[in-house]
Amino acid sequence: MAVDPPPDLRVRKLASTAATFDAALAQLTHWDVSPQDAVARGAADIVRDVRARGDAALLEFTRRFDRFECRDAAALEIPASELAACAEALPRDEYDALQLAAQRIRTFHEAQRQDGFEYVDDLGNLLGNRITPIDRVGIYVPGGQAAYPSTVLMTVIPARVAGVGEIIVTVPTPDGRREALVLAAMHIAGVDRVFTIGGAQAIAALAYGTATIPRVDKIVGPGGAYVAAAKRLVFGPVGIDVIAGPSEILIISDGSVAPDWLALDLFAQAEHDAAAQAILLTHDAAHLDAVHASMQRLLPTMPRRDIIANSLDQRGALILTKDLAEAAAIANRIAPEHLELAVADADRLLPLIRHAGAIFVGGASSEALGDYVAGPSHVLPTFGTARFASALGVADFQKRTSIIRCSVAGAEVLGRFAATLATGERLPAHARSAQARMAGIDHNR
Predict the structure, then answer these.
(1) What is the mean pLDDT of the chain?
(2) Residue 146: strand, helix, or coil
(3) Under DSSP, is residue 235 helix (H, G, I), strand (E, B) or coil?
(4) Residue tagged active-site, from 337, 355, 367, 378
(5) Are 209 and 215 contacting, i.e. CB atoms less than 8 angstroms apart?
(6) DSSP helix/strand/coil, 305
(7) CB 266 within 8 Å of CB 338
(8) Known catalytic residue: 337?
(9) For the chain, how are helix, strand and coil distributed in percent, rounded to 5?
(10) Over the stretch 200-245, which tens digit does the pLDDT of each residue have?
């Protein structure tokens, strides 16, 4: 019986001192966030059809894309009893792992909660912020190519901690296959309703509602190209979190962490798909070669070695820098989703980092721990958006409402200044509205 040969490991090596380095780095890290024309058109057609035909369109798309026939839209919903049964039937080690992860995620996000504030200024005006949860949230859980119970926990639990009134989850079930571990995670996290729909049609149903699927106020959760394109289309009528791109890891290493560990950390991101990115930065040339050798030796042992090899060939790199400070500067340019500081004195390097979705400090801090059980949500900004975006958290499921209660004296003083500014903006009704509440004017007329 013929055995397929192991894939070749092709990963580019770059040096920051090379004249072509800046151009090579820009090309390596570039990712076009706009959907391809065919994807954009396809997503738009699906969103338009679901908005117009509701449940009938959902049934049609579920049959076409997931090869799953439903007699009616009600059959798309998974009852709470099935979620509970899946949790009860799990092997003990899987159930315990979900429970531990859920508790750690809950504890971390409970620390994020804020109560708002208020104060009284020197004019007697009360000013403040009131923080309230979103009424209803839709959470998209991927399910086309793999099962993601971790994504359930990392999205649902922060929403639950925030106090969201109702949490609706959608998950594709290709060929009608329901993943018990995912459904068990939904029970443990405390979802309210679950529907077996995916893709752009799920996003459209959550955004606009159908006779069966409730309309939500915000949609969060990662997904593929059609999901991302649909989220762009529905933003406005509904809120969204981020447009997720391919998974990324960047490792800064000084040679103090075992090369095999670093090779496996790079593989852990590369195995997601061919578009994932895995990069290592080091100022130690011998260490760079040692990591490369570990990657070559370990790749044949990886079950997803073909995907890893393809990812590293397309978007991976081992980069030699002048020193660790330059490595930190390059990391800030890339603004990666995941950043590992695999160095002996990580606390000294940490202050130099400004842009990253999550930072794993020290050699013991494997990024894979953050994917599952560390506590912070693993839904993170990608393709450089860590320059301005943050990890999914409690604040993403809450609203801040300004509270303004003016005293009579405050209205008189502030009214004069407001009227002056309104007049300067050529908005006379604004000016008169401010003046109408000033002392000396009959408020009952």
Answers:
(1) 94
(2) coil
(3) strand
(4) 337
(5) yes
(6) helix
(7) no
(8) yes
(9) 50, 15, 35
(10) 999 999 999 999 999 999 999 988 889 999 999 999 999 999 888 8
Contacts of 286 by beta carbon, 8 Å cutoff, 6+ apart: 255
CA distances from 412 to 41, 420, 423, 440 (A): 56, 13, 17, 9
Instruction: Output the CA torsion 335→109→134→357 (10° steps).
Output: 0
pLDDT tens-place string over residues 123-170: 999 999 999 999 999 999 998 667 899 999 999 999 999 999 999 999
Cα atoms in the 13 Å half-sphere on the side-chain side of 334: 29
Indicate if 338 belongs to the active site: yes
User: For the chain, what percent of residues have pLDDT higher than 70?
Assistant: 96
Alpha helices in 271-397 (DSSP H): 285-298, 305-315, 324-334, 346-349, 367-372
Q: CA 415 to CA 409: how far, in whole Å?
A: 10
> Which residue of the set 187, 287, 338, 378 is catalytic?
338
Q: Residue 444 pLDDT more than 90? A: no
**67 vs 146 pLDDT, higher one:** 67
Rounded to an integer, what distance in angstroms lies between the CA atom of residue 236 and that of residue 202?
Answer: 17
